[in-house]
Amino acid sequence: MISKVLGKIGLPILIKFVSSSLGRLDADCAKKAGSALLDVSSAIKNREISAEQISEVNRHAERMQEIEGEYDDKTLAVINETIRREIASEDRFVRFWRPAFGYSVAAAWLLTMSTICYVVLADYPNAADIIGALVETTSLWSVALGVLGISVVKRSQEKQNAKKEDILSKVVNKIT
Asked: Is the Cβ–Cβ distance between 145 and 152 less than 8 Å?
């Protein structure tokens, strides 16, 4: 992630941002780190660190972005292959576990939100505690939605690609 930030905004701006943020913290080690980053920023301004060195750092960050992108592409390819194998499977459970899981999560979410609405509208005295307890289920929901998110994101991407291919074929047909 840091390479994405570095690639987008560049090293000098990132140094200024991080050093000012660290300088505001009430911890000696953070203030020392912020001061050290200010020294690096001063070295950049005074040309002690050359523009070539900074561009090399930025180039390295861009390469790190490319590597991360390739990794993400490979991960999505494996996920896509897994889903395709699930759909093509002869086993009924293997084919339908993902949709069944999705409907189960949707039903659980609907029941949870309905309960929260009821508690708030019925003016229960411990409504704040109940809503606060809902925060404790974040990890549970993140796993469930993560499984569904992979399916939704991939399917959405396939739909977008199909639209692009459809538009491209229409343009080609008009040209020919």
From this structure: no
* Helices and strands in the chain, H and E counts: 7, 0
Distance CA 33, CA 19 (A): 7
Side chain identity at 153, as an amino acid letter?
Answer: V
Q: Phi, psi at residue 27, to the nearest 5°? A: -145, 135
Reported pTM? 0.40
Query: What is the DSSP annotation of 46-101?
Result: TTSS-HHHHHHHHHHHHHHHHHHHHHHHHHHHHHHHHHHHHHH-S-HHHHHHHHHH
The per-residue pLDDT for 152 is 47
Domain boundaries, the chain: 2-70, 91-175
38 burial level (CB within 10 Å; 0-12, 13-18, 19+): middle
Mean pLDDT of the chain: 77
Q: Greater confidence, 51 or 108?
A: 108
Answer for the pair 65, 56: CB distance below 8 angstroms, yes or no.
no
Could you tell me if 22 and 30 are in contact, meaning their C-beta atoms sit under 8 angstroms apart?
yes
